[in-house]
Amino acid sequence: MYREVLALEQKLYGREHPDIARALNNLAIVLSERGKPDEAEATYREAQAMQRRLLGQEHPEIAKSLNNLAALLARRGRLAEAEALYREALAMETKLLGQEHPDIPGLLTNLAGAVQKQNRLVEAEAIYREALAAQKKRLGNEHVDVARSLNSLAGVLQAQGRLKEAEALRREAQAIRTKQPEPQPLPPGGGASQAQPSDQQFQ
Questions:
Q1: What are the angstrom distances between the C-alpha of 155 and each of 50, 89, 163, 164?
Q2: Kind of pairing, strands 193-194 and 201-202?
Q3: What sign does the CA torsion over 46, 193, 86, 75 have?
Q4: What pTM was estimated for this model as a whole?
Q5: I need a surface site. Which of 50, 86, 165, 197 has the fewest CB within 10 A?
């Protein structure tokens, strides 16, 4: 269906248009989820190059594409590349949309994950704590997204051998989950952000 949308938009708009770049990004998400990483990476890069030609070097749509490509690279084990793209996406969104934007905690969490996988645990902990603070400020203390952030932080504390601290955070997260039902993932095209196997992706 995304290929059909892409073909229709190319017929309507020609070879390049912001909507075509967005359709390429969405197609790449599906390709990644279907286990076609090479094609997904090429499609992400095509979308990103088109966005830069049309939108300039800094734009929220470019930040989303950077994040999504970084998520794919992280899953492929290319962690240094992924980290660099996450940092670029985070800096861009913070500059353009502000630190209070709803995407910022997800970007921070993605970055922390890439740093953690490179065994820089203290640095990852600091980034996870920043993400958790942002979620609590935006959503309050009892939201499922806060529970996810608590579990992420608990994971890096556990990796450092700080088991009592990790346990306390997991219990706090579990208490939130018992009060708040887990939201169902949106299908592709169903909202501003999409549920993800690990890192958060954006449509």
A1: 38, 24, 9, 12
A2: antiparallel
A3: negative
A4: 0.85
A5: 197
